[in-house]
Write a structure and sequence with these properties.
By secondary structure, this protein is an all-alpha fold. 80% of the residues lie in helices and 0% in strands. Helix 4 packs across helix 5, helix 4 packs across helix 12 and helix 7 packs across helix 13. It starts with a helix and ends with a helix. It is a multi-pass membrane protein.
């Protein structure tokens, strides 16, 4: 009887974990390289492990609530805080998602720019960011048309995650087996800020885990998904992404891999991860904003997000990246505590 219930429109903990890791790849690659050159090796490991423990505890709570209630995040928020509270929280979610859309668009533009520069081509960054936003909007539009076939995307998602994992292993191997000059000094980041950065990188996903918990078999599988994703895989992926920057002293993955002579695989990984990840960010952003601006069709919201992200993404926003993650780490962790206590 229990087997029948588990097989009915639900997924195993490992399947959920694979999907969550597929979503997490883009922000991890961006955030980890920004953090890697500001911490020593020992501090990096301790910060990543502590951040992983915090995320595991929060995710275990949020995904278990989704498994129990069998409701999406918006339904739980509305039930807990009422109509006005749900609107306030959705505004916070919209700001967070738009921030990630703009940051990822900027990362896409810089990745393509650096890749073209390797072949002697100079293209304005703003043009590349705008081209990326067109791709993101188009991907989201196609997503609306095939929402009824989401189940058929499960196998490609798993294949994508495996591909990203292999790429990360290759990047880490090259970084640790190439002789480069060790940076003379490391400007140590405050431990509290570093942990908040690790947590803030993926806290939006943790806060919306009821969306996934509502489709997991049972409580045991919900906890398996949380543990495998945030206690095991996430710290390893974050450490692998931060190691090249920690060794080279560069503040970006592309800059670090240029030192090791392996720009091409890193650039291709970043570009592909940006396209797949930001299409999902824009889709989520469209859904959240549509609950606030109900009179506008979703396609208009998607186009507006694309235009705004092209404008903001063309600016030098990477200087705001760590403060943005710190904002996410504080705000969303507080939200999780208040919502699920």
């Amino acid at each position: 009887m229990r087997k029948k219930e588990e097989n009915l429109n639900t997924a195993s903990g490992l399947r959920i974990a694979m999907i969550l890791l597929g979503i997490a790849v883009t922000p991890v690659l961006l955030s980890s390289s920004s953090l890697g050159n500001q911490l020593s090796s020992g501090s990096l490991i301790s910060v990543v492990l502590l951040g992983g423990v915090i995320l595991t505890l929060l995710s275990a709570i949020t995904i278990s609530v989704g498994e129990k209630a069998r409701l999406p995040t918006y339904g739980i928020v509305k039930y807990s805080f009422g109509e006005k509270g749900a609107i306030a929280i959705n505004i916070l979610m919209a700001i967070s998602l738009f921030g990630w859309i703009a940051v990822t668009a900027n990362m896409f533009g810089h990745s393509v720019h650096d890749l073209l520069a390797q072949h002697g081509l100079e293209v304005p960054l703003a043009l590349l960011v705008a081209a990326g936003c067109v791709i993101f909007v188009a991907s989201t539009a196609f997503g609306f048309a095939v929402l009824g076939k989401i189940a058929q995307v499960a196998v490609p998602v798993i294949a994508l995650v495996l591909c990203d994992a292999r790429s990360s292993v290759y990047i880490l191997y090259v970084a640790t087996h190439t002789e480069v000059a060790v940076p003379a000094a490391i400007v140590e980041m405050n431990t509290g800020v570093a942990v908040s950065t690790v947590v803030g990188t993926i806290i939006v996903l943790v806060a919306t885990l009821p969306d996934f918990g509502s489709f997991v078999h049972n409580r045991k599988h919900a906890l398996i998904a949380a543990g495998v994703t945030f206690l095991v895989a996430y710290p390893l992926l974050y450490w692998a992404g931060a190691t090249p920057s920690a060794i080279s002293g560069q503040g970006s993955l592309l800059g670090a891999m240029a030192v090791f002579g392996a720009v091409l695989p890193a650039a291709l990984l970043l570009i592909f991860a940006c396209v797949t990840g930001n299409a999902g960010n824009m889709f989520q952003g469209t859904l959240v904003v549509s609950t606030l601006l109900t009179r506008f069709p979703k396609w208009q919201i998607t186009v507006a997000l694309g235009i705004l992200s092209a404008i903001v993404g063309s600016m030098d926003i990477m200087a705001w990246f760590i403060p943005f993650l710190l904002f996410l780490g504080i705000r969303h962790a507080t939200r999780c505590r208040n919502l699920y206590r």
